[in-house]
Design goal:
The complex is a heterodimer of chains A (452) and B (412).
Chain A: H1 9-33, E1 37-41, E2 44-51, H2 52-63, H3 67-79, E3 83-85, E4 100-103, H4 118-132, H5 138-150, H6 155-171, H7 174-191, H8 199-209, H9 215-229, H10 244-247, H11 251-255, H12 265-271, H13 275-280, H14 282-295, H15 299-312, H16 318-330, H17 342-351, H18 361-380, H19 383-391, H20 402-410, H21 418-436, H22 441-451
Antiparallel strand pairs in A: 1-2, 2-4, 3-4
Helix pairs in contact in A: 2-3, 4-5, 4-6, 15-16, 15-18, 17-18
Chain B: H1 8-41, H2 47-50, E1 61-69, E2 75-80, E3 86-91, E4 95-100, E5 105-111, E6 119-122, E7 128-132, E8 137-142, E9 156-160, E10 165-170, E11 176-181, E12 185-190, E13 196-201, E14 207-212, E15 220-225, E16 230-234, E17 240-244, E18 251-256, E19 262-267, E20 272-276, E21 281-286, E22 295-300, E23 306-311, E24 316-320, E25 326-330, E26 337-342, E27 349-353, E28 357-364, E29 366-373, E30 378-384, H3 402-409
Antiparallel strand pairs in B: 1-28, 2-3, 3-4, 4-5, 6-7, 7-8, 8-9, 10-11, 11-12, 12-13, 14-15, 15-16, 16-17, 18-19, 19-20, 20-21, 22-23, 23-24, 24-25, 26-27, 27-28, 29-30
The chains are: A mainly alpha (452), B mainly beta (412).
Organism (chain A): Sparus aurata (Gilthead sea bream)
Domain RGS (chain A): 274-389
Domain DEP (chain A): 30-105
Chain lengths: 452, 412
């Protein structure tokens, strides 16, 4: 493909030169190959206008590629200023529809002018200033100001050139002037792209207002984290029974799988480090669910899991999920009604009229904090946790002789493929969902009636 | 220099325009210095001062445990599967390979229709991989248990940028992908429909890397670009919420600290830096006079104590994050290291290089001193230099674990 981009910026220009000539050869061919017509834009009639889908069809045919690839190639031609869009001039893409485009005059091709000169840009902006009586876009105003300072020594010259060009432009016929304006504007959009520089001030204001923490506090927290996890970092403390990469024995991974009956002591200790750790390790989450079941307070976690699924799920499944969550957790009298404050409940229910990915964010955070600040600590003190701590094992460290290590290297186990594990997980989840689904009393009753 | 405009009305217009712009500019300068002031007020201590009471690490000896050969050209990117042993890697010749790094078996291979596949990622379920590069797209390939199945047939085109794809990552599910591109933007996509969910604008040049926050809220990510900026984004609103501009060149890699409260970056200016998100400032620079080549890729060990960096001078440097010193240097690759990731359980790290290979590396450790905590059955280990002789332990210290004694002193 022509577009071998090298990140080294010094080579970028060299590469640009070599592939631009190839692009230009294609563009020249295209100009005679694609049918152009006159189109009305606002009030003026513009000649030699082509439609996006015609260009893409030509490229696909000429290069024997798919429409997709042709569209990408077309977009590159727009990005590098060989073709410019007439409508929506800021979006530099080739659309596969009736969108209108024009070929850029060779005067403005990238190979003609290596660097879009600052003084040329200054003349262009000054000219626009005269014509539109000072109505430059915010980013252009910032550029203008910068150039005014930077090129102040030749500002007389710039103003003179701008006035000359403005006068010359006025002498042209309107259609020609409109075309030239479009071409010039397209050229500068590519070479001086709009940057939201004016939002910088808003950003600074927000940054100042954002709450910050003392270095001693935040750095202290970083150090504390390292200290807490020191014994769990395989680079700082040995894995028990052994690190699979070192001994070619994968017992360590088997002992720490998702659904082991008995976890290791190290793993159970990690669950106590933070609520996030407990939830992230699905085996820990299982244990937490056992505790919640005994307390008859499983709805908070169930809601949190459902909200996660909504947030991270496919766009198409969102409204069905939102509906089911409302029925199960939020509706008055719902079977697993969650106890959140009135304001959050009100906002959430209202948001569910038009569900979007983050509609449950407020409720989810509320429930998460509730569990983090209260339920989690009660879990750590509970008989459930104490039980699993006692049950948990500390594997004996391996002590392989060199001969055994060689054996291990010959017989590395393949383990279970992630796809198979995932299929097993889906089955387990389906079973669990069926088991914990709220009982449909009517169905039960009618079943009993039918039996009678 | 006095300006003398030829047209009088232009003079007044110019003056008016300049006044507004001057006002904007001074406001900008004032706000910037106010922000620096606020940051400085809270800066009461340096990282190495806080780290004074932390034990030193001594030197590490790292060893290559696996070398994966099979790519025909420069390896550009790699990612681990959540199963801690599988890897997906992509290279300049358009090939994407899925390996079981533990057995070194190649399990799947896909040939992309473009060259320079600069980004690849493993799906959280382990059932798919995503990749892209010069095709400006990110495509998802579902994997199959059937070795003979043609994976390209089920390929799904998800992301579409207007310039090359530099990095991609799944969120916590297989259903969403976050991408960064040479077109200066990042974007979040719905995999099933290919719909653009959110786009992130703010970088002034190519975005080269990104990393998702491991925090409980899980709604932010950091990106680094050729504009020398590292930006932190809110995924819901698309807003840039924090920005750091202290590097002197392109930022090639960003990675969150495991707690999510900080992140590290690696740049062409040959330094790695640590940024504290809560204090809103850079807190450490990892550099040495002898290191002059750029960093291509960084990652933390599980506890966050070690920072691994892959460099363009073919080496891997390992830094003590808290003390700021280098604790190990690894040679082995025969060309620049382009990508580096620590495995999901922290047992090893993998590197990919322009020498067409991937390596999985680990450390050999020696320990002296053990404290046996009876309540929790954990051991406290102190790593030491390989040349120090081990202490002998009596049986009373280790009632049940006499083999442990032997294990510790053996070099592996």
């Amino acid at each position: 493909m022509l577009l071998a981009i090298i990140r080294d910026t010094r080579s970028k220009l060299a590469m640009l030169l070599s592939f631009c000539f190839q692009l230009e050869a294609i563009v020249v061919e295209m100009q005679s190959g694609v049918k152009g017509s006159e189109q009305k834009l606002n009030v003026t009639t513009i000649p030699h206008v082509v439609a996006g889908n015609d260009i893409i069809a030509w490229i696909a045919n000429k290069m024997k590629t798919t429409v997709e690839e042709a569209q990408t190639f077309g977009t590159m031609l727009v990005a590098y200023c060989y073709i410019y869009p007439l409508q929506n001039h800021k979006k530099l893409v080739m659309c596969n529809d009736a969108s209108l485009y024009r070929f850029q005059t060779p005067y403005f091709w990238p190979t003609q002018k290596w660097v879009a000169e600052d003084s040329d840009y200054a003349i262009y902006l000054a000219k626009r200033n005269i014509r539109k009586k000072g109505m430059l876009e915010p980013y252009e105003q910032v550029h203008y100001n910068h150039l005014h300072e930077w090129l102040n020594h030749k500002w007389d010259f710039i103003v003179m050139q701008a006035t000359e060009q403005y006068k010359a432009g006025k002498e042209r016929k309107k259609p020609d002037r409109v075309v030239l304006d479009c071409q010039e504007r397209a050229y500068w959009i590519v070479n001086r792209p709009p940057v939201s520089v004016c939002y910088t001030n808003i950003f600074y204001q927000q940054a100042i207002m954002r709450s910050k923490v003392k270095s001693s506090v935040s750095l202290g927290a970083l150090v504390k984290y390292v200290t807490t996890y020191k014994n769990h970092d395989p680079f700082l403390a040995p894995c028990l029974p052994s690190n699979p990469w070192q001994t070619d024995n994968d017992t360590y991974w088997n002992l720490n799988m998702r659904r082991v009956e008995v976890p290791t002591k190290s793993r159970v200790e990690r669950w106590s480090f933070s609520f996030f750790e407990l939830l992230s390790d699905l085996r820990g989450r299982d244990d937490f669910k056992i505790f919640l079941k005994r307390e008859f307070s499983g709805e908070n976690l169930a809601f949190w899991e459902a909200a996660e699924e909504l947030k991270l799920g496919t766009a198409s499944s969102m409204s069905t999920k939102a509906e089911s969550i409302f029925k199960t957790f939020l509706a008055p009298g719902a079977p697993r009604w969650i106890n959140i404050d009135g304001r959050t409940m009100g906002l959430t229910v209202k948001g569910l009229d038009h569900p979007h990915r983050y509609v449950l964010e407020a409720a989810q955070t509320h429930v998460f904090l509730l569990m983090k600040k209260d339920t989690f600590f009660r879990y750590l003190k509970s008989p459930v946790y104490k039980e699993i701590q006692k049950k948990a094992i500390t594997p004996e460290p391996h002590n392989f002789s060199p001969a055994q290590l060689e054996q291990n290297a010959q017989n590395r186990s393949a383990g279970i493929h992630p796809i198979i594990l995932w299929q097993q997980e889906e089955e387990e989840n389906a079973k669990a969902a069926a088991a914990s689904a709220p009982v449909d009393v009517k169905a039960m009753m009618s079943k009993i009636d039918r039996k009678k | 220099v006095q300006r003398s405009p030829l047209i009088p009305e232009m003079a007044t217009q110019e003056v008016q325009l300049n006044e507004t712009l001057a006002h904007l500019k001074t406001e900008s300068e004032t706000l910037k210095s106010k922000l620096e002031e606020e940051r400085a007020k809270l800066h009461d201590v340096e990282l190495h001062q806080v780290a004074e009471k932390v034990e030193g690490l001594g030197q590490f000896v790292m060893k290559t445990r696996r070398t994966l050969k099979g790519h025909g050209n420069k390896v550009l990117c790699m990612d681990w599967c959540k199963d801690k042993r599988r890897i997906v890697s992509s290279s300049q010749d358009g090939k994407v390979i899925v390996w079981d790094a533990f057995t070194t078996n190649k399990e799947h291979a896909v040939t992309m229709p473009c060259t320079w596949v600069m980004a690849c990622a493993y799906a959280p379920s382990g059932c798919a991989v995503a990749c892209g590069g010069l095709d400006n797209k990110c495509s998802v390939y579902p994997l199959s248990l059937d070795k003979n199945e043609n994976l390209a047939a089920k390929k799904k085109s998800v992301a579409m940028h207007t310039n090359y794809l530099s990095a991609c990552s799944f969120t916590n599910s297989d259903m969403q992908i976050l991408t960064s591109s040479g077109d200066g933007t990042c974007a979040l996509w719905d995999v099933e429909s290919g719909q653009l969910l959110q786009s992130f604008h703010g970088h002034a040049a190519d975005v080269l890397c990104l990393d998702l926050a491991p925090s409980e809220t899980g709604n932010t990510f950091v990106s680094g670009g050729c504009d020398k900026k590292a930006n932190v984004w809110d995924m819901r609103s698309g807003q840039c919420i924090q920005s750091f501009e202290t590097h002197e060149s392109d930022i090639n890699s960003v990675r969150y600290y495991p707690s999510g409260d900080a992140f590290a970056s690696g740049s062409d200016d040959a330094t790695c830096r640590l940024y504290d998100l809560r204090a809103d400032r850079e807190v450490a620079i990892y550099s040495k006079e002898s290191i002059i080549f750029g960093v291509s890729s960084v990652d933390f060990s599980l506890s966050g104590r070690l920072l691994f960096g892959g460099y363009n001078d073919y080496t891997i440097n390992v830094w003590d994050v808290l003390k700021g010193t280098r604790v190990s240097i690894l040679f082995g690759h025969e060309n620049r290291v382009s990508t580096l990731r620590v495995s999901p359980d922290g047992t090893a790290f993998s590197t990919g290089s322009w020498d067409h290979t991937l390596r999985v590396c680990d450390d050999c450790y020696f320990f002296i001193g053990i404290k046996y905590n009876q309540n929790l059955c954990t051991f406290n280990f102190t790593p030491c230099a390989p040349d120090k002789p081990p202490l002998s332990l009596t049986a009373t210290h280790l009632p049940k674990y006499s083999n442990l004694k032997k294990h510790i002193y053996r070099s592996t």
